Amino acid sequence: MSIQQHPHVAIRTLSCGPAAAPEHALVHEAVAFWAVRQPDTVAAQHGAESITYAALVHDADRLASRLEAAGIRSGDAVGLFVTRSIPMLVAIIAVLKLGAAYVPQDIRLVPPALLSQVFQDAGCATLLCLREHRTLARSVADANILTIEDSMHRGDGVDWIPRCVPPDSTAFILYTSGTTGLPNGVKVTHRNLCNILLTAPGNLGIRPGMRVSQLLNIAFDMSAWEILGTLCQGGTLVIREDDMQAAAATADVIIATPSILAQLDRDQCRRARTVAVAGEPCAESLAAHWGERCTFFNGCGPTETTIVNTMHRYQRGSGHLNIGTPTPNNTVYVLDAQCQPCAVGETGEMWAGGLCVTAGYAGNPALTAERYHDDPFLGAGWKMFRTRDLGRWTSGGELEHLGRTDDQVKVRGFRVELDAVSRVLEQAAGVEQAVTLKLDSRTLASVLTPVGADVRQARAHAQRQLPYYAVPAHLLTLESLPLTPRGKVDKRDLLQRLKRIG
């Protein structure tokens, strides 16, 4: 890939990630490679249960055969409403082998009405579930329901042959919350996934013999980084039970949101050698803490750009943390309101291009047309995605994330970026995390962790660094921040708490 010549230096020299060729074009082919090369290696472990690569592929073939008999074909969508488990992995690989797309949801955490909405919106004809949730599944979908375990632990042969699957086939449909509050299903392809999971640094150095923790909700796109990133590279996935710390403690690689990572005890994770975070802003203090012992990556990118499309390897003692540079075969443009490139150091909106750009929203062509545009810099049919993230290029050629366009608020008539206020507070001594919210047209408030953080010192630091209108009027300390089921900070919960003290 090459960016067309453009008069702006940032487009010519900064926007394009390196070229790299993934070893496999299809996710399930990468898994099958390891099933042949190391059939008896443990692919995944969940408490006392485990499954080898050979058994994983064998069971997936059996389930794929059942799905095909039920009428599932390439291009179809299959609901995968489960909880973390080994059968969950079997189902994922089975659906991919058919060229179909799985639609993941945690059946215990999502209300039945929302599960039904997702099932219908994605156009699913079949629902896969665990045996224990079959009754609940019947209340969610009036469709063919298959129990995954019925295809497992069988020693008989499988005559089913994997179908020919084009790399641009949708691998899964991931539902985001959307700015309207209604779910939007993002279609992520095999090409999208292999590009980030099978090239450096997105592969995180995972290889046979390494253990990777599986901590995140299956409905969160970063869980694909854990699950598929491990299985595509011959590692062993350690699926968490109730104790998240226990799974992380035995892992060589930990992938998490900053909020989840902040809940883990680093000193109990003595095996960890690589840590990657994304999904929300990361405090530099958190990167420095883990970076003392591990290779630490900070990534950025919405679901629509396939997990992350920029990554930064934090350098211990560097004193700065950003979101780095575009990942291989991807581009990032910092553009102004007229979609013209911003100069180095100027703030603009980040647009993402290249192989990371997903196939749009399921059943929503209007929203797809609004957010996915023709890429004028790559041309030749390429698309770019409007992330609504604000950023700027540094003189060192890296990207700084400066919040979101929908994170800008007006306070006393001035425009304020809430994430920028939080980053300043996190620089105050003793503050580990900060979240800033708008209470009313004149008032900001912030929540700090840990509960013992010195509020007066933090406020004084903010007053030295920020204009008066951006200094939070209220500071609340908590031992830890409340999280959503996807492991991000629950801002609705925090806003309710702040309004009670405001």
Strand order of the largest sheet: 11-12-13-14-15
Number of strands: 25
Mean pLDDT: 92
CATH topology of one domain: GMP Synthetase, Chain A, domain 3
CATH homologous superfamily of one domain, by name?
Answer: ANL, C-terminal domain
Beta-strand content:
25-35%
Estimate percent helicity.
Answer: 25-40%
CATH hierarchy class name of one domain: Alpha Beta
Amino- and carboxy-terminal Cα gap:
53 Å
How many helices does DSSP assign? 15
The geometry reads as globular
Name of the CATH architecture of one domain: 2-Layer Sandwich
Structural class, from helix and strand content?
Answer: alpha/beta
Unreliable sequence segments = 1-9
How much is the radius of gyration in Å? 23 Å
Major β-sheet annotation: 5 strands, mixed
Organism: Stenotrophomonas chelatiphaga
Pfam families: AMP-binding (PF00501)
GO molecular function: phosphopantetheine binding
InterPro entries: AA_adenyl_dom, AMP-bd_C_sf, AMP-dep_synth/lig_dom, ANL_N_sf
